From TrEMBL:
Region annotated Disordered, chain positions: 121-145
The name this protein goes by in its record: Flagellar FliJ protein
Topology of this chain in the membrane: Peripheral membrane protein
Phylogenetic placement of the source organism: Bacteria, Pseudomonadati, Pseudomonadota, Alphaproteobacteria, Rhodospirillales
Coiled coil ranges: 71-105
Principal subcellular localization: membrane
Length: 145
């Protein structure tokens, strides 16, 4: 079996790309949360200003439907982002599992190569020992009888 190093390197790059993508999605989620907080602070400021005069109260009343639309838009964006983040996390987990599968296969291949090399080396040493024993028997055996 050939080395899996190329496939491992390819899958490491894929895992890194998926991590970067997930990080970008999470940063986008943080930005969206900050926008939501900023929007809510602005709405609260407008609400407080609406209590200062009748004109401001009427303007705020006209502003309420727009507030609802913006809240819904922000909520929809957040929900889509949550779905995208979950999908990206699943993709990353799957890519990581594939990478581990290739790394384990490569480790097993290397272990088998080492075991085969050790087996061949042992056979060679056994053969050398058998030859040496045969020679010693041949040299010492003729004088003993």
């Amino acid at each position: 079996m050939k080395s899996l190093k190329t496939l491992i390197r390819l899958h490491k790059n894929e895992v890194d790309d998926k991590r970067r993508h997930l990080t970008q999605l999470r940063e986008h989620d943080d930005q969206l949360a900050a926008r939501r907080r900023q929007f809510e602070a602005q709405v609260e400021m407008e609400r407080q200003l609406s209590g200062t005069s009748v004109d401001m109260a009427m303007a705020f009343a006209n502003y309420i439907p727009q507030i609802k639309l913006q809240r819904n838009a922000l909520e929809q964006a957040r929900l889509q982002l949550v779905i995208a983040i979950r999908r990206a996390e699943e993709d990353l987990a799957q890519a990581f599992q594939e990478l581990k599968r290739f790394e384990l296969a490569e480790e097993e291949r290397i272990r088998q190569e080492k075991a085969e090399l050790a087996r061949k080396e042992s056979m060679m040493l056994d053969e050398v020992a058998a030859q040496r024993h045969t020679r010693q028997q041949g040299e010492g055996g003729s004088g003993e009888e």
